[in-house]
Design goal:
The chain is an alpha/beta fold. It has two domains: about 5-175 and about 210-265, Acetylglutamate kinase-like (Carbamate kinase), CATH 3.40.1160; about 270-425, VC0802-like (2-Layer Sandwich), CATH 3.30.2130.10. Helices cover about 30% and strands about 25% of the residues. It has helices spanning about 15-30, 45-55, 65-70, 70-85, 120-125, 155-165, 195-205, 215-220, 295-305, 335-345, 345-350, 375-385, 410-420; strands at about 5-10, 35-40, 90-95, 100-105, 115, 130-135, 135-140, 145, 170-175, 195, 225-230, 260, 275-280, 280-290, 310-315, 325-330, 355, 360-365, 395, 400-405. The strands form five sheets. It has an eight-stranded mixed beta sheet with strand order 3-6-2-1-9-11-12-10, with helices on both faces. A four-stranded antiparallel beta sheet has the order 13-18-20-19. A four-stranded antiparallel beta sheet has the order 15-16-14-17, with helices on one face. Strand 19 (about 395) and strand 20 (about 400-405) form a beta hairpin. Helix 7 (about 195-205) packs antiparallel against helix 8. It is globular and about 80 Å long. The two termini are about 35 Å apart. The chain binds aspartic acid and magnesium ion. The site of magnesium ion has 3 residues, from loops. Aspartic acid binds near residues 10, 135 and 150.
């Protein structure tokens, strides 16, 4: 018998039939004798509608009232799933963030979880009651409802799994796991049976948008075993019509369903490159001919930080004539603010011109094995050279090599790299 948290995303609870499908999956785990807590998202599209209503009424709306509105999507699905489970003869009860309570700070719209009171839920789960928890929401110290940021119910689920000391946290979504790259670009992408938290973090933050980044950080820090799997593939065996009564044998945790996100020690065969990610969310800026003297970088990036423009890759060359070029990337959405920040320091550092290029893509190869293997970056550079793709900027971390290229070559680059690292199925 295990204690598990099951989380279902918006597409998995998009209508009543899908909620019934979710109930069948929950029932299967209950029938196996497991203690179950379920975390639900809002029905797909609902949160977008709620957000739009707030913005349409007032672009500068009060963040506390925004949270009061957008948290309702999850309230609806938690109640509906509890009804559905009860209809199937399962003892179930819905829980809003404030009822648990799931305590957060006061950063409305992107609140961080402080603590979760798990004792009452555990007590009820031990009696066989299923806790159906509204994801995405919590309560601030002043008793106001908060939400955790878009995609936040992943974080609710992982935090709940940690608080309940669950054996695992199953994240049901509309893809059946984490792939070596985006299967829409590379049809021969393979599903990974396991991936480390660190690799998942790198892949999540560079564009593989399956899990909210914060949920992965939390899982890593708390040691929560996370499994990503689809709620759409194969109906639960004991829910099939005419299935014999009695619980089916439990699937082992390490079966090939979905992808398990785990600690590095749990992966025996470490790949040099586990996956390839891409992102078209960044823009390149070059500040031409800045003086090459102490304090220039501090001035430029200080001004950008003050404007809250998030900088990612940076390159600076050595100077031949006392001036140099500084090239870096910012999120596309931050481009106007970056431009304003740089205009503000024009007099101070007296650069020649600013060049902007939004048509760039960042391609990253990720793998914990590259810590102990040489030549990973060179394989990347050669594969891109073979396709005559120019590399504009390079950055590396312990387990990642990223390059910036022209956006039009994104697909070509991802395909070439997928083959070059032997990842094709
Ligand atoms: N419903 C929220 C959103 O759409 C939270 C979530 O689904 O994770 O962002
Ligand atoms: Mg999501």
């Amino acid at each position: 018998m295990a204690r598990i948290v099951m989380k279902f995303g918006g597409t998995s609870v998009a209508d009543l039939d899908r909620i019934r499908n979710v109930a069948a999956r929950v029932k299967r785990e209950v029938d196996r004798g497991h203690q179950v807590a379920v975390v639900v998202s809002a029905m797909s599209g609902v949160t977008n509608t709620l957000v739009k209503w707030c913005t349409d009424l007032s672009p500068m709306h009060d963040a506390r009232e925004y949270d009061a509105v957008v948290a309702t999507g999850e309230q609806v699905t938690s109640g509906l799933l509890a009804i559905c489970l009860q209809e199937a003869g399962i003892d179930a009860r819905s829980w809003q963030g404030w009822q648990i309570p799931l305590c957060t700070d006061t950063a409305h719209g992107k609140a961080r979880i402080g603590s979760i009171e798990g004792a009452e839920l555990i007590r009820r789960m031990q009696t066989g009651q299923v806790a159906v928890v509204a994801g995405f929401q919590g309560i601030a110290p002043d008793n106001r409802i908060t939400t955790l940021g878009r995609g936040g119910s992943d974080t609710s689920a992982v935090a709940l799994a940690a608080a309940l000391k669950a054996d695992r946290c199953d994240i049901y979504t509309d893809v059946d796991g984490i792939y070596t790259t985006d299967p829409r670009i590379v049809p021969r992408a393979r599903k990974l049976a396991r991936i480390t938290y660190e690799e998942m973090l790198e892949l999540a933050s560079v564009g593989a948008k399956v899990l909210q980044t914060r949920s992965v950080e939390l899982a890593m820090n708390e040691g929560v075993r996370v499994r990503v799997l689809s709620s759409f593939t194969e109906a639960p065996p004991d829910a099939a019509p005419g299935a014999p009564p009695g619980a089916p044998p439990d699937a082992p945790l390490d079966d090939d369903t979905g992808t398990l996100v785990v600690d590095e020690d749990e992966i025996v065969e470490k790949q040099n490159v586990t996956g390839i990610a891409y992102s078209r969310d960044e823009a390149k800026i070059t500040v031409r001919r800045v003086p090459d003297r102490p304090g220039i970088a501090a001035t430029i990036f200080g001004a950008l930080a003050e404007q809250n423009a998030n900088v990612d890759m940076i390159v600076q060359n050595i100077s031949a004539d006392g001036t140099t070029d500084m090239t870096f990337t910012v999120g596309k959405a931050d481009l106007p603010r970056a431009r304003a920040a740089l205009a503000g320091i024009k007099r101070q550092i007296n650069y020649a011109e600013l060049i902007e290029d939004p048509d760039v893509a960042k391609i990253s190869v990720v793998g914990v094995g590259m810590r102990s293997h040489a030549g990973v970056a060179n394989t990347m550079f050669s594969a891109l050279a073979d396709k005559a793709i120019n590399i504009q900027v390079i950055s590396t971390s312990e387990i990642k090599v990223s390059v910036l290229i022209a956006a039009e070559y994104t697909e070509l680059a991802v395909r070439a790299l997928h083959s070059a690292y032997g990842l094709d199925a």
